[in-house]
User: Fold this.
Amino acid sequence: MAQTADYSHRSAVQKLGIEPGQRVEVAGDLGVDLRRDLRDALGRGFVRSGELDAAIALVETVEEAEEAMVAYRPRLRDAGYLWLVTWKRGHDGYVNQMQLVAPARRLGLIDNKTCSIDDERSGIRFVIPRALRGAARPG
Assistant:
């Protein structure tokens, strides 16, 4: 029988892949603790303009997710990524993350990872496919 890796010991920041010095923008109410942990891991504050290594946005509707994708896709560096954080099933703001895959593909993004942020939220990561890196950005 196949064994699965246990990543429960990893912090949310580790799961998100944040590294020191990256240019990261955060949107939405991710909570004081997660914002602090992200800044600590970066060793700097968040950015609000220019190119991004990463964007992390809390979204509560498919429409909000699409708006975030449209806003962040042109700013992502080729190896950059966009984490859309959603509430888990049972929460009023629950979004089925699979509903986000088609709009992302239309914008030249693909999903390649999901993770649990905490007991109430999870994230789905979107990246630029290797075949599109270095190409003109859609939109």
About this structure: The radius of gyration is 15 Å. DSSP finds four helices and five strands in the chain. The first helix runs from residue 12 to 16. The helical segments are 12-16, 32-42, 62-72, 101-106.
